[in-house]
Amino acid sequence: MSRVFRSLGLVSALALMAGCVSSGNRHGGLEALPEARLPGPEALTPESAERIAQRYERALAVAQDPALQLDIRWRLADLAMARSEAALARSDSAEPQFDEPIERYRALLSDYREGRWAEDGIEPPASPDHLYYQLAKAYALDGRMEEADRTLVALAEQFPESRYYAEAQFRRAERAFSQGDYAASEALYRELLPDVGAVPEFGQNALYMRAWAQFKQGDYPEALVSFAGVLDHLLLPADDAAQLDRAWAQLSGAQAEVAGDALRAMALSFAYLEGPDSIGELERRIGARPYEHRLYQRLAETYREQERVRDAADTYGRYVAENPDSDLAPGFTLAQIDTYREGRYPTLVRSTQQEFVRRYGLLSAYWFKRGGQPGSLVEESLREFLPVLANFQHARAQRLADQGDGEERTRQAFAHAATWYREFVASFPDDPAVPEQRFLLAEALNAAGQWPEALDHYRRVAFDHQDPEYGREAGYAAVLLADELERRAGLETDQWWARRLEVGQQFADQYADDPRATGVLGHLARGQLERGELNSAAALAQRLLDWQPPASPDEQFSAWLVLGHSQFDLGQFAAAERAYWQVLERWPETDEGSAEMMAGTPSRAEVRERIAASMYQRARQRLDADDVSGAVALLAEIPQTLPNTDVAAQAQFDTAHYLMQLERWPEAQQALETFRAAYPDSPLQAQIPVRLARVYQARENWLAAAAELRRVEQISDDPELQRESLYLAAELYQRAGERSEAIDAFRRYAHNYPQPAADRREAEYQMTELYRQTGEADKRAFWLRRLVDGHQSGDGRSNYLAAFAASELAESSFNAFSQIKLRLPLGPSLERKQAALERALADQEAILDYGVAEFSTRASHRMAAIYHQLGRDLMDSERPEGLGVLELEQYDILLEEQAYPFEEKAIELYEINARRTQRGVYDQWVRESFEALAQILPARYGKEEQVAEVSRGIY
């Protein structure tokens, strides 16, 4: 501090000396002298100063004017001060050098205090505060600090408005501080604070020293405010960390030292208080400051110097917590990590690294908000931390898995590891370590049960990176995982199967030299077959069969099987047949121990069935091409080549069927009879009788055909087929002349099958015909009555048959009527005749109700004939015996009168029948009606038809 006084004193002395040299008698024209100027330090030499002093001494000795005397004494004091300061500057001696100036200043002040100047009315050359200031300075430079302090107190008390006041107080504060009186020092420094702007050289220092005084008293909260003021004056108006750092860099050496000391003191204060909490408290008092980060940073460094590692790390972390979006936050977190690492806290290092990645990963919101990229330090840190975190978590998850420590907990651990792997590959896609990290990511995801994402990363390692170290295993892992995903999703999920197919084919393409490639292809081929992707399945199977070096026998066996199935379902039956024969040729000697012979592999018998089915389908294709003969040839080959297959039976059956279609009846008969003998247990046996019946009919072997149909009736479970077979058998028996068999079949049909009514009535009709042929009238009449009684209106055929039956039955009553002769006594015979007439007419009238022209004309004719017959019978009846000629004549007249109405009725009915010609009806009974009318009314109806010849001549 003496250096400050020395420099200030030197300046004052030089000013005084310059004034002395240029001044004259104050009242004698001193004001006319040129303005005093300070000479340079080189101008004031000891010799010149001494000579000047001697001149002033001589002047003082002769001066009579008190004012001039005062002026000279004042100048001599300043000159002595200047000489002493110059001598002090030249000498390293610790001996006092300031006795003369002290004595001179004290003498001047003594006169001032005693009021001599006032008594003499003298105006001093300067304010007396200058004398106090110079005296205090001389004491200080002479090492007499207590006297200097008392002088400064007097200056401050007597001249509070003095221009030396600030420095006086500052010197007093320094003195108090150096003596350990920090409270007094603080009070004195505080007085200077309002003058910080006016007297910056003291105010700023006062602010700084006041802070230290508060610090020394342990008043850390107030010291912090004061130190903050120091930093504010040095660094503001910087308003953010970047500007502040630039302002700091521009500080002078001394300023930077002050700022650094202030930070150090503040850090110590925070450490003595509540650490980072105290920083927050300070900000609440004075507001936020752009140098906040330096407070946290210096506090952390202080803790580290004190080996308080946890506190240092917490301080870095506290800054980040309070300023998460700060540009400096990543660096503080890295410092926190380094601190934990120095303190050997691996768990905390790891957790903080995790937090660093979460907060400042390249894909984090932190960088997104900034719209920019982090610096190399952050990127390198991420490159370092991410693999470490991932590997640690992966190893931990594996330990949990090995220990069986809960499936869900283990999955979560693997998922946690995947988080870090994923961050690495997303952040550094071009890094050489990406293939390895992505493979490990896929492994972790797989173990975590996140299979779709795991599959994607396996694929990228294998097929995008094509990494020589991990690609092959990644590809096969992708194949297995895709298979597992498809299995879990089920066959209905096309998405996963498509992924499985793509991955498998990529593996086979990319790693064709891998011995597992053929197994993958075989698996895909079977899978495509299961899903009905037949072309793809066939292509994959063929690719496997073409593989070089050749696939294993089991794999070839499986491929031929897939190829056969695919080609079969594609309708490529010839190719399928060849493939199936290859399957049989490659059939393992035993079915044990072969993966390809496990679930889903058909038996030999099933493969033979497939071959037979292929041949059968080839025949179907020929049928579709209208090559029936070619189809028959193929079908006939199947039972010969593969006789014990189910298809063989069908082929034999179809051979017969298509031979029937070709009307190659003898061959068809042989094929059917062969089938009956060769395949007695076939369900198709039920159809053989019907088909043989058809063949026998074609060959006109009616009796054999009927026998087959009776067999159908007996063995069939189908009531409808039984019914039809019985009816057709009856017809065939009838056709074969087996009348009794036909009667038996028709009778059974009519009794057992009331429906359909039309067929039943036809059977009843056939019974009437058969019994007509056998002459069994009563039995025939029974079936005729069945036809009449079973008739229901609305059915044309039934109506016809009923009319037919009624007509046949009416012949009986008609014949009965015709056979009754009128004999004497006429009454009884006439009565019988009359009754027969009524019955006969009723039967004929019933026929008319059916409205069938064929039988209506007959009925009308029969009714007319009945009346006509009755009239004739009356006229032909026996005459009573004993009648005279006149009586006989009268009797005949009486008979004629009785017969006439019947004849008229007969004519009426005959004419009704004859008029049917007007409606286009002209049959036997209409014709016979005309003939009867011609006999009865020859004049009217007995004329021969005359044909007029027409002349075609031209007149």
Automatic annotation (TrEMBL):
Sorted UniProt keywords: Repeat, Signal, TPR repeat
Repressor as UniProt keyword: no
InterPro entries: CellSynth/LPSAsmb/PSIAsmb, TPR-like_helical_dom_sf, TPR_rpt
N-terminal signal peptide: 1-23
SMART domains documented for this protein: TPR
PANTHER family linked to this entry: LIPOPOLYSACCHARIDE ASSEMBLY PROTEIN B (PTHR45586:SF1), TPR REPEAT-CONTAINING PROTEIN PA4667 (PTHR45586)
Protein name: Tetratricopeptide repeat protein
Gene source species: Marinimicrobium koreense
